[in-house]
Each structure stands twice: as C-alpha cells, then as structure tokens.
Design brief:
Blueprint (H helix, E strand, L loop, with lengths): L11 H10 L4 H4 L1 H14 L8 E5 L5 H9 L4 E6 L2 H10 L5 H5 L6 E5 L12 E7 L7 H11 E12 L5 H8 L13 H11 L2 E14 L2 H10 L16 H12 L7 E13 L8 E2 L2 E2 L3 H10 L1
Parallel strand pairs: 1-2, 1-4, 2-3, 4-5
Antiparallel strand pairs: 5-7, 6-7, 8-9
Helix pairs in contact: 7-9, 8-11
C-alpha cells in the first residue's frame, strides 16, 4: 500500500468519554446511522451465510445488534464497544432469550464486551462473521483489519460500513475559514481500505460507496446532532476553548455559502466493504519457513 493518507484520529480515551456521554441521546439523533445499518443488511441478502458465532464491532446502543439477532436467530452474538455506557444501554434495551428458548435452540444468547476494536479480547479463529456499522472511521483501520483477520475462522466474512474522505466536506471547509485547528475527522479512502484488507490477508475485498446528503435549516441543528451521537470534535489538536460569538458568526457565514434551495447540505460519503478470510491464510515466514496453526494443518490433512 503506497501513499495512503493517514487519518487524524482522536485518542481512545476521548472517544470513549464522548460516546459514554452520548449513550442516552444517541438514538434520538442517529437516524442516518440506522439507515446505513439497514442498507448494510440489504447487502447480506445476496450473501449465503450461516454463522455460529458473530462479532459486532462498535455495537453502540444495539440497533444493529438487534437486527443481527433477528437475522441470525440461532447464532451467538458478541457485541463489542469501546464505551461502557453504550454497552450497558444496549444490554438494557435488548431483550435476552429465555432459558427455555435457548434450550430449544430458538434463540442464542447475546454477550456484551467493552473493549477496543484494535485489540479484540477474543481467541484466534473463534468467529464466523465480523460485522461493523460506522465504527472503522474512529479506529486505526489497519489494526482492526488484522484483528478481524485473527479472530475469524477460515472462510469467515468481515463486513462493514464506514465514512470516506468527502464526509462533512462542507463543515470542514467552513471551519477552515475560521481557524487552522482540526474540527472534523479525516477519513480513509475506500481504495486504501481495500489495500489494508489485502495486507491483513483477506481475499478479494469488495468495496463500493454512495453519497448521502442530509439537509438542515440551520447549522446549529447539524452540530447538535453530531454532539448527540458523540461525534463532535475530540481531535487531539483541537481548540479546547469555547467558541466565542465572533468565531461562531464567522462559521455560520462560511457555511451559508453552501445553502442550496433554502437548505444547508451535509454530505456523507458512505463506504461499504466486505472480504473473506481465505481457507489457507497468509502467514509470516519464520527463519525462512511458513507456519500454519494446528487447526489449519488438520484441515489440510483431512482434505488430502
């Protein structure tokens, strides 16, 4: 992978704090996140998949978690999120199956784990399906790709959505008229994400994108929604002080240049991707020889 633009990412502790605070206001403002989650599931209709164990990276308040339980009622779901507030909220609002339902195989149990998607606390080759809706943009995509590769079984699927570089381009441009501090995350290009998946050992990644434009009557509504889902500015080089009246008026004036048809647009470049873990995954050579795990060796022997 060459010349990939490295995104400016917030510190994990800042992300955790922001989403902890947004746990109770998230659902009220996350209509776009739900819509993208629905579109992610539409893509599942074209993929034959019967996973025993599913890992969700970035479960948030549990919207996709609930859809996973409905779509794969016999699969055990592990829902992971960096923010403990999100995990608690999702667990509280997701009804668990009764013991009788579990006994008769009508519904598997859902587990919640508070952890970083860059360091997944699960065993190697323990999952059949790893799915993530709008979490990768908060992470080091290379690290998450390698971790997804590690925890997936052979022939397992990694499927996700994220945001691309054109996301919130209007807001970024408006802030650049106010000061030289970062206010909006930078996002990894779709093609670079595909390269990262290949480098992690995935085969034939499929990537595509679409643009969704949300419109507002005034700028403060957009900023209120971003704060409500925990997506306000937590970048390490941000201006930590409050925005004064003068800077706020300058920001509003700069954003007004984008008004079209009486509305202010907010552009989101939505990236969709999926890739499979090959049956014989790539292993780094040790002293000139390639190593494979015992389970993979047994599969090869059984096939021969």
């Amino acid at each position: 992978m060459q010349n990939a633009r490295r995104p400016l990412l917030p510190l994990s502790r800042e992300i955790r704090r922001s989403f902890d605070q947004a746990a109770t206001s998230y659902d009220e403002n996350a209509y776009l996140q739900r819509e993208i989650g629905d579109r992610l599931f539409e893509r599942l209709d074209y993929i034959k998949l019967a996973p025993e164990r599913i890992l969700e990276l970035g479960c948030g308040t549990g919207y996709v978690t609930k859809k996973l339980c409905g779509h794969f009622p016999h699969s055990a779901v592990v829902a992971l999120d960096l923010a403990v507030g999100m995990c608690r909220y999702a667990q509280l609002h997701l009804p668990q199956p009764t013991r009788i339902a579990r006994m008769f195989g009508k519904r598997a149990l859902t587990s919640f784990v508070c952890a970083n998607a860059e360091q997944i606390p699960l065993a190697d080759e323990s999952m059949d399906f790893v799915v993530s809706n709008l979490t990768l943009q908060w992470c080091d995509v290379e690290k998450v790709s390698c971790e997804a590769m590690r925890v997936l079984k052979a022939n397992g699927l990694f499927m996700f959505t994220s945001f691309g570089p054109d996301t919130l381009s209007e807001l970024r441009a408006a802030f650049q008229q106010v000061d030289d501090k970062p206010h909006v995350n930078t996002f990894v290009d779709m093609h670079d994400v595909g390269d990262m998946l290949l480098a992690a050992g995935f085969s034939d990644p499929v990537m595509d994108q679409e643009t969704i434009t949300v419109t507002y009557s005034e700028l403060k509504t957009l900023l209120h929604e971003l704060k409500g889902i925990g997506a306000h500015n937590v970048l390490p080089e941000r201006n930590s002080g409050l925005m004064g009246k003068g800077r706020w008026q300058a920001l509003v004036a700069a954003y007004e240049h984008f008004r079209t048809g009486g509305k202010l647009p907010a552009t989101y470049e939505v990236v969709y991707g999926h890739a499979w873990k090959p049956e014989f995954s790539k292993r780094k050579p040790v002293d000139g020889q390639h190593t494979i795990p015992l389970a993979e060796f047994k599969r090869r022997v059984q096939r021969s």
